[in-house]
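DM from R.C. (forwarded with permission)

"hey, sorry to bug you on a friday — could you get me a structure for this? deadline for the figure draft is monday and I only need the backbone to look sensible"
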Amino acid sequence: MNILREKILQELTKSPSTMDYLVRATGSKPPSIRGRISELRKLGYKIILERGEYTNIGKYRLIPEKIKNNIDILLEEVDKYDLYNVSLDYGWLAKNLKMSREDILDVMIELNKRGVLIQTSNNSSKIIPVK
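My reply, with the result:
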């Protein structure tokens, strides 16, 4: 694997990183970093660019494979059984999707970060379809 891609993966595995941070950490220029991130995405790595609520500065974040797979599983079930706008109990989801409760919470947090509308209470969530 390309050395720059490896450095970028190492940094993103530690924590989400701004372009400025990746420039300092790798010693490379932004176009090279963007190019390697694009290559990593083509290789199957799930890297997203998050923007803060009160800032325009973005952070690149690597989504762990486990969370990515769990999101796919959850959304397939929601689509399959039309579970939008239905209160989804975390215990029921964990049991039926064969995930831990912590995995379900990680998925809900990630979906929320992606802009999927979710209403949450202590023990359940509703996924609101985007029209």
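R.C.: lifesaver. The mean pLDDT is 87.
me: no worries. The beta strands are 17-18, 47-51, 58-62, 88-89, 117-120, 124-128.
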